[in-house]
Structure formats: C-alpha cells, structure tokens
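Title: Comparing notes on inverse folding

I've been comparing how different people in this forum approach sequence design from structure. To keep things fair, I'm posting one structure and asking everyone to reply with a full sequence. Here's the target:
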C-alpha cells in the first residue's frame, strides 16, 4: 500500500509541476492523462487481485505453481506486440 501512495504522491506532484501551462488545453491534457493512468492502475490491480483469488482460493494451485505461472506470463508478455501499441498510446500525451 505504501508503494501505491508513493506513486500517487509523485503523480500529483507531476500534475502540479511549475512548468505546466495553465491554459484550458494544458489542464485538460493533465487531467486526462491522470484519469487514464489512474484507470489503468485500478484496472490492473483489480485484474491481478481477481486472478490471484481465483488461482489460490478456488483452484488451490499452491504458491509453487503460482510462481511458475507468473514467471511464464512475465516471460511471454514482454514479447507481445500489444505492449508496444499501449506504449504508443501513453506516449502520445
């Protein structure tokens, strides 16, 4: 939880950075990027929570197999093309 608060604190500091222009366009862009970031973070947290609950509680796979599954997922997904498109989406701001 402390890490999440740390990220939120620095996102707020980045939102009110002194070089931000206070025009309508600048404020809308900053608020929009913050909403997208917060939505993605909340969605990723909820998906991870539900997946872990399903695997550990309902399927009872155990911690050993859970760690094996997570390592396989983390090995495969960095090579997926969809992450490159998501990166382009977030760098467009």
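Reply #1:
Here's my take.
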């Amino acid at each position: 939880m402390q890490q999440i608060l740390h990220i939120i604190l620095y996102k707020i500091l980045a939102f009110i950075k002194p070089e931000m222009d206070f025009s309508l366009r600048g404020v809308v862009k900053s608020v929009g990027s913050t909403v997208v970031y917060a939505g993605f973070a909340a969605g990723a947290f909820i998906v991870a929570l539900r997946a872990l609950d399903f695997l550990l509680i309902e399927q009872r796979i155990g911690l050993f197999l859970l760690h094996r599954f997570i390592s396989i997922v983390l090995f495969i997904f960095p090579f997926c093309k969809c992450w490159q498109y998501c990166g382009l989406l977030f760098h467009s701001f």
